[in-house]
Each structure stands twice: as C-alpha cells, then as structure tokens.
Automatic annotation (TrEMBL), chain A:
Keyword list, A-Z: Cell membrane, Membrane, Transmembrane, Transmembrane helix, Transport
Protein name: ABC transporter permease
Stretches assigned to the ABC transmembrane type-1 domain: 69-253
Topology of this chain in the membrane: Multi-pass membrane protein
Subcellular location: Cell membrane
Cellular component per GO, a single term: plasma membrane
Pfam families, per the entry: BPD_transp_1
Length: 265, 286
C-alpha cells in the first residue's frame, strides 16, 4: 500500500532519533573546514569560529541580538500561525469537497513555482513598510507546505473509517475531531516541518530590504560597517534557531504520532 | 414515544408493533449499477430475499459478485439504483446504529487504545468517559480480550483486532449485525476459533446476522441459511436452509452433513463459473 502519510512520517522518524554523535558529525565537519579556511586565508572576510563566538557573546551582552531576534521571531511566528490556520482549513476543505479540490489544486500548482518574494515590492505598496508585508509574505510561503500536508493527511482517512463514523452516528464536527484530524496529523506535522525553515528565510530576507530592525537588518548593518564577524554571528544564530525548531517539531511528531511507531506511550 | 401519552384514547398500541409475520429485513428486486468512465457495471440485479428476526444468514459468492455492495446498501452507506429495502416495514434512509457494520479489515483507529476504540461509540452517544470505559471493558470481556484494554491496535494480532472490532460493533446494540468477510484476512486456525466464538456470542444474543464470505465451510458452519450469489450481474442463484443442529461447535465440523453441503454448494458455484458466466459476461458492456 502506497501510503503517503507513512512515508512522510518515515522521513521524520529517520531524522529524529538515532545516534546523536553521527548526526553532529556533519556539522562538526563543516565547522572544521571553515576554521581551516579562516586560519589559512587570514583575511577579515573569514573570521575564525572563536571570533564569531566572541561577536555573538558581544551582541548578546549589548542586547542587540535579543532585541532584533525577538522582533524577527514575533513576525515569523505570527506568519506561521496564520499560515497553519489557513493552510489546515484549505487542506481539509480540499480533501472533503470535490469542488474545493477541483478549484484549489490547479491554483496551488500554478502559483507554487512563482517566486513570491518578487511580490514583496507590491506588498510594500499595498501595506506600507512595517510588519504587514513581511507577515503576509511568510503566510504566502508557508501556506503551501501546510495546505498540501493537511490535504494529503486528510485524504489518508479511509472510506471504512468514515463509514464507521456514520454507522456510530458521529456528526461532522465529531468526525473531524476524532477521525480526520488524528489521521491527518502525521502529514500535517511534515508540512509544518517544511514550513519552519521557509518562515525564517523569508522573514530575514524581507528584513534585509529597507528595514531598521530585525535579524535581517542586523545582518545588513554589520555588512555596511564591514564587519564579517557580525554578519556571520547572525547567520550562526539563524542556523541554531532553524536547527532547534526542526528538533522541536521532530520531537512533537514523536510524541503526537506515537501510534505510527507501534509503541505505546 | 410521544404516542404513549394518547395511548388510552386509541384502541391500543398494538397497531404500532410490526406484525409477527413481517420479516425484519425485506430486500425486494434490488439493483445497483455503477457508472464510471462511461462504463456501467451491473453490480446487483433483481436481488430479493427476506430475513426473519434472529436468523444467521450467510451470503456466499465469488469475488466481485456484489456481496459487499449488497451489504453496503443494507447498511445505508450506499444507495440502491432500483428496488426497495424495508427494515421492519420501513424504508432504509441511511446508516444507523440498528445495523452494526463490521468491515473486512478491522477498522480500528490506530491512535486510540483498544479500550478507547470500543468506548468511542458510547462517547459519541454522550456517555460519560468512565461509564463508556466500563461498558468497553464488559464488551472486551465478552470477546475474550480482557487484559488488552490499554494496548494499541498495532500491538494486537489480526484475530484480536477483529475481536475488538466485534466488541465495538456489539456496543452499538444493533438489531442486525452486518459482517463483510470479517475473518477473510485471518489464518486458518484463528479463523476457526473466531467462527466458534462468533457462534457462541450469537447464540446468546438473539441478533440477526448477515455474514458475507467466500468460504463454503464457513458459510455452512455459521449459517441457519445460505444465500449463494452469482456474478455479472450479481444475483441470487440459490437459497438453502442449513439443517445442522445447534449449538454448533467442533463436533459440527466433523458432521458428514457438512461435507454434503460443501459439495452441494461447490457444484452450484462451479456451474455458475461455467458457460453461464460467459453468456452473462457480455451484458456487462451494455
Ligand atoms: N464504487 C464503485 N464504483 C464502480 N464499481 C464498483 C464500485 N464498487 C463496486 N464496484 C463493482 O461492483 C462489482 C461488485 O463489487 P463488490 O465489492 O460488491 O464485490 P464483492 O462480492 O464484495 O467482491 P469481494 O469478494 O472481492 O469483496 C465489482 O465488479 C466491482 O468492480
Ligand atoms: Mg467485498
């Protein structure tokens, strides 16, 4: 049986547990190569790990990182939250209504390859500078993985399960809560896992364009002052954040989708 | 129920009760055609039979003859294309708890424990959580699954899953049990045990059962009566009462009468698969 949900969660499963040392090996290798390049080139363009670390500590101490990081994360999560709500609703609607499915599928397919970042200037014209165009762009980008994940997940509910619910006399709300959503959960979490890094990328990129706050701005400021260590400090922080979010969602999947492993909690 | 208030004014409530001779289920010239990509499949044609209350009816037929379709229509999940279906004299409008459906694959929710799966209909019905759990425990004891309440479906064998599904279906307090090859996916030994278990539960319950299978011995061992269906179009080719004594058990399986029934039904099915099947095969593409 080709179950898209099963394969999707299998992907999560393969990445989440396992020997943690081996998973850190790749990162260690990257850092080692960087350190080697930094030490041999000796230019300011390639600061050493110690220099980047010192800069992060400095930015933490001055409160810059906290101030800008908080703003970035607030916008990022607002966008993600809206995308999750709209995406889940769209995905569920598509899975349950032939009409919605027929309408939405070509629409999503046609708009997916469009670089939505190109819409940013228009969004600025529409909403002005500030939070609104950034959040909107995050929503637009994160909508796709959420809607598709929910759609695939909700489609994985079998006819037998729905008929069973009808036999029992469960209403549509009860069926949604007790049957459709649990069945869709694994694929929804896969969608969320795809959306999280997109959220960070989009928000930082928009902050790099004509903004005076946020991690993207901090990065551009360091660039303007010709401080490569400042740029890389922000990049490193973004990397850590992205990694943490990914681990968090993986852990969430492990806890929520326990039945796919056949192990009781 | 509100009619009771006026009961003294009317000559009696007896008119509300179904006449004793009325069958619980009446299937009359039922037909079902599926249309897909301009191709029509006559899944059922002119299927008629009555089921009296409390009968164990086996329906036997080759794969694709419309057995599931028939059961789905009785369950109210699908609509007949023609004919009528009367339950205690009333037409069937949709699914209901009066007809408990058991699917070929045990349709348990993998995210719920066995206990929660069996308790779910009670929760849907508005029972309190503790009460629903208590009822679930009783039902699980009936099907011999005590001690597995907290297990998840993935941790159980196929036979145990079907037992749990049976417990959940019994929890609907149905008048009719609709079973679609529930033991089809089980190994031979588990299957025999489940047949004996079902016989035991049914003999104590007074339920009407419509049991679909393509296993001749299973149909005979379980049934008071066996309907044999033929394919293309799906229709009834034989209606035989099984005259084996009750209660039935391991000894019944060694009864020489079993072998007689077996060869009788086998002959019917063989004939059906012969030239007649070829002749009717052409009408499929009409
Ligand atoms: N939803 C459907 N759309 C189109 N054709 C269908 C549909 N459901 C069933 N059929 C067709 O109707 C016929 C009867 O199907 P059905 O599932 O009732 O057979 P069955 O006797 O239960 O077979 P099996 O023993 O394999 O379960 C088959 O030819 C099948 O292809
Ligand atoms: Mg079938």
């Amino acid at each position: 049986m080709a179950n898209p949900t099963a394969t999707a969660t299998a992907a999560i499963r393969n990445a989440s547990p396992g020997p943690s040392l081996r998973r850190l090996l790749g990162i260690a290798l990257l850092l080692a190569v960087w350190e080697l390049v930094a030490n041999t080139s000796g230019t300011r363009l390639t600061p050493t790990l110690r220099e980047i670390g010192t800069r992060i500590a400095f930015d933490l101490e001055t409160g810059m990182l906290w101030f800008h990081g908080r703003l970035t994360l607030m916008l990022a999560f607002s966008g993600l939250l809206i995308a999750v709500v709209i995406g889940c609703a769209t995905g569920l609607l598509m899975a349950r209504s032939r009409w919605a499915e027929a309408m939405m599928q070509p629409l999503l397919g046609a708009t997916y390859p469009i670089p939505r970042l190109a819409l940013y200037p228009i969004l600025i014209l529409l909403f002005g500078l500030g939070a609104a165009p950034k959040v909107t762009l995050v929503v637009l980008e994160c909508l796709y993985p959420m809607a598709l994940g929910t759609y695939v997940g909700a489609r994985s509910v079998t006819k037998d399960q729905l008929w069973l619910a009808r036999n029992v006399g469960a209403g549509w709300l009860r069926t949604l809560r007790d049957v459709t959503l649990p069945a869709a959960l694994p694929a929804m979490l896969t969608g969320l896992r795809a959306a999280a890094p997109i959220m960070l990328i989009v928000i930082v990129v928009t902050e790099m364009i004509g903004e005076n706050r946020g991690l993207g701005y901090m990065l551009m400021l360091a660039r303007a002052n010709f401080e490569p260590d400042g740029v890389l400090a922000v990049v490193a922080v973004l990397g850590v954040l992205g990694f943490l979010f990914d681990r968090l969602i993986a852990l969430l999947s492990k806890l929520l989708v326990f039945w796919e492993r056949g192990v009781r909690m | 129920m509100s009619g009771n208030i006026h009961a003294p004014l009317t000559s009696g409530t007896a008119t509300m009760d179904p006449p004793a001779d009325q069958p619980q289920l009446r299937v009359a010239s039922l037909g079902k055609t599926f249309s897909r990509n301009r191709k029509t499949v006559h899944a059922l044609q002119d299927v008629s039979f009555d089921v009296p209350r409390g009968q164990f009816l086996s329906i036997l037929g080759p794969s694709g003859c419309g057995k599931s379709t028939l059961l789905h229509i009785i369950g109210g999940f699908e609509q007949a294309s023609s004919g009528s279906l009367l339950l205690d004299g009333r037409p069937v409008a949709g699914p209901g708890r009066d007809r408990g459906m058991m699917f070929q694959q045990a349709t348990l929710f993998p995210w719920k424990t066995i206990e929660s799966n069996v308790a779910w209909p009670f929760i849907v019905d508005g029972h309190k959580r503790g009460e629903a759990r208590e009822r679930a425990h009783e039902l699980l004891a009936t099907v011999g699954l005590s001690g597995f309440e907290r297990s998840y479906p993935a941790e159980l064998s196929g036979g145990m899953r079907q037992r749990a599904a049976l417990a959940r279906t019994l929890g609907l307090s149905p008048d009719i049990l609709l079973m679609d090859e529930p033991f089809g996916a089980l190994d031979a030994q588990t299957r025999e045990l489940m047949q004996e278990e079902l016989t035991r539960i049914w003999e104590h319950s007074g339920l009407t059962v419509i049991f679909i299978t393509h296993d001749i011995d299973e149909a005979v061992f379980l049934g008071d009566r066996v309907l044999v269906m033929g394919a293309r179009p799906g229709r009834i080719i034989a209606d035989v009462d099984v005259e084996l004594g009750r209660p039935r058990g391991t000894t019944t399986k060694k009864d020489p009468q079993m072998a007689e029934y077996h060869s009788h039904f086998w002959e019917l099915i063989r004939q059906e698969a012969g030239p007649q099947a070829d002749r009717n095969g052409g009408s499929d593409r009409s």
